[in-house]
Structure formats: C-alpha cells, structure tokens
Design goal:
single chain, about 180 residues, alpha/beta, Nucleotidyltransferase, domain 5, about 50% helix
Amino acid sequence: MKVTTVGIDLAKNVFQLHGVNEFGKPVIKKQLRRDQMVEFFVNLPAYLIGMEACGSAHHWARKLQGLGHTMKLMAPQFVKPYVKSNKNDAADAEAICEAVSRPNMRFVPLKNIEQQAVLALHRVRQSFVKARTAQANQIRGLLGEFGLIIPQGIGYIRTRVHFAFLYNAAGSSQGA
C-alpha cells in the first residue's frame, strides 16, 4: 500500500515514525536514529509529513522539505487531543499523523535559518536582561539590609551603588 501521510515524534536521539495510507490504515511504524532520518526519506516519494513544533523541528522540516516532502508543523497543544492511549513516542507519532491530516488544523509557519538566528539572538539577549535585573534586585536587597535604599531601575544601581559604598565607608570611619 502507498503511504500518504507520516507523523514524526522528534526526540534527542531516536525518532518515532507513524505512516498511513490513503485509507488511514497504518503502514509504517518505525523508530529511526538521528543519523538514519535523511537516509530513510531520501529515496521515498513525496509524503505529507507532520511534526510538533519543538526544538529541532524547523531544522528537520527544512531538511525533509529539501527532499521534496510537504512539511507541516503544529503546536503541541493542538496535537495532544489526538493522543489515543498512554503518552509514549509511538502514540505521539500516531497522534501527529492524525492531526496533520485534519482540514481545520492550524499550522506553525516554517522558519528559515535567518529567522531562527534572529529569534535565538533575541532569546539570548532576553536571558541576559533577566539575569541583570535579578542581580540588580539582589544588590538592592543586600544594600537595604544596611539601610541604603536604592530606587528600582537599573540606572539607579549604576549611579548610586558606588556613591552608597563611599558614603557608608566615610560614615563608618567617622564613627570609629
């Protein structure tokens, strides 16, 4: 029988595939290691392939789309209702295969490498800003324990912390 639709559950090292024919009957139930993915799909006719939009999904979607397959990415919360049994990789792949064939399914647009690079840059910057804010709040809290109150805002930390230490050092040496 001819396979028409494949659902792939991505993981770190072992991927689960579930493929159905035009009647919706399972034809492929297979596990592949990361290094076997391209080798498996390279000589196959064009399939509709669905995956959950996760960490490496855009990479694999671009790779498989380059081999001629039609790729559809879905948000995990839209796939979850299609899981029929206990959650495992095989059940997830089957649910992905079922969800991708639904006519009213909402799909995630496939990102190119440049889009992913910009998003990664923003994510790293956001992480640095969050860490800087946490550090500033910690400094304000510690100085508050010594009676040195610094208003909220990163600018106040920069301008007043040096002054607060100088003031505190001068005040403590005068009292001795």
